[in-house]
Design goal:
two-stranded antiparallel sheet; single chain; 5 helices
């Protein structure tokens, strides 16, 4: 079964590799081009965001010198970046923030829950090591409750067992 799955995966991977079109990878020159040989392509100049009037002072800013030689301050703090983003990006970031809050809440709850569980286990282990036995372990441990119930049934039995009582107790205690 595993061999068939591996074979199918291998065939699917080779089929996608063979389905690619093209003669091959582009030819790459082994020498670096000289600075004068860059060609006639003109790169687009980056457009700097404009600061609106009345914005509060940025927490973090980066001065950038634009092509005209003027120094422009660009806000780089997280709040201004989120506020300038598209509304879909803002919605996604908001949902991600809510998801992080939910995960952290569940994590902290589970940490507390495990701490309490390990504390109860430590107390039960200490009681078992002390030699009191499983019957003396406190709490609502199912095994301790079953042990106490069985001990109670054994104590309630008469000292001299008849054959009917012996059969009945064997059925109940499954001995």
């Amino acid at each position: 079964m595993v061999g068939r799955a591996a074979t199918v995966c291998f065939l699917l991977m080779t089929a996608t590799a063979m389905a690619q079109e093209g003669a091959g990878p582009p030819v790459v020159s082994s020498t670096a081009p000289a600075l004068g040989e860059l060609g006639t392509e003109v790169e687009a100049e980056p457009v700097l965001p404009t600061a609106s009037v009345g914005d509060p002072q940025p927490v973090a800013s980066t001065p950038i010198i634009d092509p005209a030689g003027e120094s422009v301050v660009v806000k780089t703090d997280l709040v201004s970046l989120v506020l300038k983003a598209h509304w879909v990006v803002q919605a996604v970031m908001g949902l991600l923030a809510l998801a992080v809050a939910a995960v952290l809440t569940i994590f902290l709850f589970k940490v507390g829950e495990f701490a309490l569980a390990f504390r109860r286990l430590g107390r039960a282990q200490a009681a078992l090591i002390a030699g009191k036995g499983l019957v003396q372990v406190g709490g609502k441990c199912p095994l301790a409750l079953a042990s106490r119930t069985a001990l109670g049934e054994v104590d309630a039995l008469p000292r001299a067992l008849t054959t009917d009582l012996r059969a009945s107790s064997r059925e109940r205690l499954e001995l």
